Amino acid sequence: MAFLQRNTKNQLKCDAVVIGWGLTGQSVARFLLKKGVRLVAMDTREKPPQSKENWEHMAPLIKGEIDHDFLEICQYIIISPGVGKADLGFDIIAQYGAKVIGDIELFAQFVEAPVIAITGTNGKTTVTNLVCNMLKAGGLKVLKGGNIGRPALDLLSEPVPDFYVLELSSFQLETTYSLKPTVAAVVNFAEDHLDRYGCVQDYLKAKLKILKNAQVAVLNSDDDVLNSVEFSGQKVGFGQHEPTNENYGLTRDCEGHYLSKGSVKYADIKSLQILGEHNITNALASLAICGVVTELSPKVIRGLQTFKGLSHRVELVGTFKGITFIDDSKATNISAAKAGINACLSEKKGVLIFGGMFKGGNVEDLIKTIEARVHTVVLIGQSAEFFYRLLRGRVPSIRANCMNSAVGVASAFAADGEVVLLSPACSSLDMFSGFEARGIAFKNAIQSRVKEN
Fold first, then answer.
1. Which of the residues 325, 339, 346, 427 has an alpha carbon 20 to 30 A from that of 107?
2. Cβ distance 423 to 345 under 8 Å?
3. Edge to edge, what strands does the sheet with 142-146 contain?
């Protein structure tokens, strides 16, 4: 702290403290410094990620500790979403109250165009990208960010679009209070992040903050939890039930299955380029969101039909020696893994690569799904022994110490015409920098096997 050259607490000068020196924290610092705000940045890590900017003469960065003197004197504490109680060692919101905000709250105070806000336990990234694809196809200008792509505050440096489309996590919503979305969508809800939240109700409460000031709520009516959510404004539902005049659904007739609302059929599900039952629901969610803000013209529907999906989300990698390899590394929780297994594997016809840093939740339904559709499980990561014990006597399982080994073992046990699926149901951070790195390692291991043969 000597570089701050302070002698007494009264000499400290600081308008805002930024906690967490990753992409979000650095975007906050850029934004605030341009507005002349005096700030101090902090990170509990001794070696936080490097930045492109040279901050040495712009703002002090305190590494490896949290300095409460600055927290007490500043007007605002902007905390990055990935920083939780466990990282800080205390409950910062309980201690410092309403002056603790996140970057999305700061964004909400300066945004000048309508916002479409999207959350959910699973599928929110796919829906966010689908919505952007559809609106752009319809001729609208959109900027996308938040929990994916660019930090929300960086979007404010661009020319004002027709819509901002934000994917928001529960972590971001915890410290957001004044965002007023034109549309707020909750794609689904399932147990997740129980390693951070005290109980599933705390997690749900954080998710539902997205609805607080929304004009229109778009909610999954197939989801028992979301179907019972009360909302005072306009509510639009979507799900794989029969459509109504108010809600989007699936029309099933002798000609096929169609994404519809009322009697209007928008698209045959066979025209979609994304796989799985869960992606039919994601397509319906996207229709419901876009239908609030624009006409669902043929151009907009074409944006739905041309969307090819995202990397590491039930992504077909290729076929080698008759075995199909699918990357679903983004399945970092139980419900996502169940959806991936159901989408990709038929009865006893596949090998599953599974495991990592388990985030908690009820695993029994997942184990039953694995029993029904998987004949061999290859376990990786921190949770390998935990799941090995759960699977014992139910599904044959083998532990592997790296992704190369896991792909090799899986390939040996998969027969011609079968599938090897990476759908881990766990975070990747015990072995990789993120789910993307895990998916890339999976693809690289497959490519190595192809070259060797």
1. 427
2. no
3. 142-146, 163-167, 115-119, 183-186, 216-220, 234-238, 248-253, 256-261, 264-268
Quote the CA–CA distance of 227 and 223 in Å, as a whole number: 6
Tell me which CATH code domain 13-101 carries: 3.40.50.720
H or E element, residue 397 = strand 397-399
- CATH architecture designation of domain 106-305: 3-Layer(aba) Sandwich (3.40)
Separation between Cα atoms, residue 405 and residue 109, nearest integer Å? 50
Query: Cα dihedral sign for 395, 400, 402, 404?
Result: negative
pLDDT of residue 47: 87
Residue 9 confidence (pLDDT): 52
Q: Is 220 an annotated catalytic residue? A: no
Across the strands, what pairs with 166?
117, 145
**Burial class, 221, CB count within 10 angstroms (exposed 0-12 / middle 13-18 / buried 19+):** buried
| Helix (H/G/I), strand (E/B), else coil: 378 | strand
Which one of 147, 188, 220, 279 is the catalytic residue? 147
Q: Residue 5: what pLDDT?
A: 42
Q: Which two tokens stand for residue 240?
A: 């794989």
Q: What integer pLDDT is reported at residue 4 of this predicted model?
A: 42
Could you say which architecture CATH assigns to the domain 315-452? Alpha-Beta Complex (3.90)
pLDDT in tens, 199-251: 999 999 999 999 999 999 999 999 999 999 999 999 999 999 999 999 999 99
Q: How far apart are CA 153 and CA 108, in angstroms?
A: 9
Catalytic residue among 124, 278, 359, 375: 124
* From 193, 312, 338, 359, the catalytic residue: 193
Q: What is the pLDDT, as a whole number, of residue 8?
A: 46
Specify whether 193 is catalytic: yes
Place of tokens 């570089």: 3
pLDDT at 310: 87
Domain boundaries in the chain?
Answer: 13-101, 106-305, 315-452
Burial 320-340 (b: 16+ CB within 10 A, else e): beebbbbbbbbbbbbbbbbbb
CA distance 194 to 328: 21
What residues of the chain score a pLDDT lower than 70? 1-11, 52, 54, 56-57
